[in-house]
Give the backbone structure.
Amino acid sequence: MSLFDEMLEERLASLRKQNLLRELRFVGSSQGPRISVAGRQCLNFSSNDYLALANHPALKEAAVRAIEQFGAGAGASRLVCGSLAPFHDLEESLADFKKTEAALTFSTGYAAAVGAITALVRKGDFIILDKLVHASIVDAARLSGAKLRVFDHNNLNDLEDKLKWASQKQFESRNHKSELWVITESVFSMDGDIAPLREIVALKEQYGAWFMVDEAHATGVVSACGRGLADKLGVGDQIDIQMGTLGKALGASGGYICGSRKLVDLLVNRARSFIFSTAPVPAAAAALAGIRIAKSAEGEQLRNALHLRIADFKSQIGLAETETATAIVPIILGDESKTLKAAGCLREKDIFVPAIRYPAVTRGGARLRITLTATHTAADISELADALRVMEILPGLPAK
Ligand SMILES: *Cc1c(COP(=O)(O)O)cnc(C)c1O
């Protein structure tokens, strides 16, 4: 082994010892309720393809059409070699979908978060994040150089304490103008619960902060047409920056920021992940077909099927229904090795559920993260619920 590899092996061994080592599992099929994992047909409860659009004929056809008309690659950054028509169509459709003035797409949701936050937030500003926001937001907030505070998950009192602190600091440093930013998710990616957006809007207005919401797991799933939680709660107009991904329920790939025309104008000038990166492949515009379906009668049917499965699954494993159902159901086991064992046990039954561990969640917060999709059947749901019950890992539920 080379010295370099020896050094790397030490680090890998440390991860292995903590039950935090990850490995890629080879999948030889497209996404869907059934996938082939390492050569075995498995029931799939790991995908964020909530409306089963990733493999939908309309999206595949849109991707093929985009490739035929605009090619396999985009050539350069949109500011350098010109901005391809399909991205303009997609952005118009996104703005309409999210009821905002404008939209800008990025190569990924991660790039959208990093690009937008570092473009907008300056050193000397104050960023206040929900404790459970996605890594892309945490990384961006750190990169911005702003003073960073985290409030307890969905805890409005703690958020207000942090806002009070920041506005006091803001007052003390009046000589240079600083801004306050509050950022949260609408549907939390590893817990599947939702943020009290109305109450946060009231606080952000009271304290003069700007508000950004990541709708990665709500878009396509929540509210009429799948417009998201901000739409459902009627607070879209009071959210300054709406972010999300095109890679989950919308079935394609990419990220977006929706908001005012001025916001998009500024991002085009300042978002480094947009400026210094080759435009996404033209086929990414397949997301436009995803939005069309989400808004259509077919989309409504898919959402209804999804929500039926969610309700069915929750009732089978003894979880209460919530007012806003989401497709993410975590079974929190805490211990990393226990969670790995549980996922392994499910895989032996040909059921694929990821063991989510640090740093995706806190240490000791390991869990099975179950995601449901519109094309899971009632039998699929029962098979999973039965397997979990037999394993006796459901809190407060006796084995059958
Ligand atoms: C997946 C995800 C992202 C990143 O989006 P990608 O398009 O996958 O890069 C951002 N925020 C949240 C909450 C996510 O779950």
The radius of gyration is 22 Å. The pocket of pyridoxal-5'-phosphate is lined by residues 108-110, 113, 134, 136, 185, 189, 214, 216-217, 245, 247, 255 (CB under 6 Å).
